[in-house]
Input
Amino acid sequence: MFVHETTLEVRYYETDLMGIVHHSNYIRYFECGRNDALVSLGIPIRDIEEAGVMMPVVKVECNYKYPAKQGEKLRIVSEIRELPRAKVTIFNSIYNEKGELVCNGFVTLGFIHKDTRRPTRAPQFFVDKFAEFFQS
Output
């Protein structure tokens, strides 16, 4: 299993009039965690797209547990529990500064050819980066 953590501070414009993070922003936080995780492995999205592969979102789920507020620092934990092949699912948990679970969920991404938009498998260099985390 691959696990990565990143932090970010809730910005004012991400909140509603009550100072609570708007529900749509948690999906963006999932993306921040995912992007940071891929960068930490040396495979930023830019490199994947330059190799001719795009990663569209196939499914997303978010379970809201506790409201996050403007100014809080959030810890985003991203996990990949299976070796990527035709798709990759990233499980996310977001915690506030007190360690309370704010939300959890997942995003499933597919792989498509950049030019044809036809489905493909994960690029081998992408799979290779995760292989060490899934050896028995």
